[in-house]
Amino acid sequence: MTYDHDLLEWPARATHFVEASVSRLLNAYPTSGVYLNILVEPDPLSVMGVLVVTSESGTGRAGQIEVMDALLPKDMMLDANVTPYRGVLLVRTRLDALKAHSLILSSLPKHISRVIPIETECEPNVDSITNAALAAMRGKGGGPFMVRCKARGSELSETHVERVVGAYVKDRTGLGVDLKDPDFVIHVEIVGNFAGVSVLPAGFPISMKSVREDIVSSMRYILRERS
Questions:
Q1: Rounded to two decimals, what is the model's pTM?
Q2: Overall number of domains in the chain
Q3: Would residue 11 be called left, alpha or beta, if left means φ above 0 and alpha means ψ between -120 and 50 degrees?
Q4: Per-residue b/e over 138-172, b at no fewer than 16 CB within 10 Å?
Q5: Are residues 148 and 104 in the same domain?
Q6: Are 164 and 185 part of one and the same domain?
Q7: Across the 227 residues of the chain, what is the mean pLDDT of every consecutive 10-residue run?
């Protein structure tokens, strides 16, 4: 019997580990107030969260259903749009983006692969993106960083954006760039006419793979303790 397979196929049996696992992963990287107390319910009238969600399924419809299952109980005004780009969803919610991110990962979806909470929206051009990245870096600490860009439906090269944003932020802040062991990652998400930027601690869980691995590790530990 292999527990890896069982855990992923029997989410009901692992439910009580899921929120603890996600919370532990998230709170392992609290570098500023924005990353603390992420499970506190915000005022739904004053917060508009935006997330870019990628799905392993072709059209993204299965991922859309999973987003709705996770967030609709908390936000009946949820807007989860399947974009023209394969497997990419653009989600707008009255929940805080980090709260929505936590709820989606905690629901243990089968089709969703990545969930990026967006901190700042901007125009999908290099100037707007670099300015948004610099603004998002303020107050995040003084460690080295790296830039990761995902572009869909854009003429911008991901590598070009990463280099320009990295050079601009480095020049304006004096912070170093470290592609192997950064303290922070500047995430740039471009989806057609939408562009969003987030600065997240390195290791911040944006993929379901990291959540599944943590759950499996927790279950193995418990099984060893009981044996």
A1: 0.77
A2: 2
A3: alpha
A4: eebeeebbbbbbbbbebebebeebbebbbebbeee
A5: no
A6: yes
A7: 37 46 52 37 60 85 94 93 94 94 91 95 97 91 92 96 96 94 96 96 86 66 67
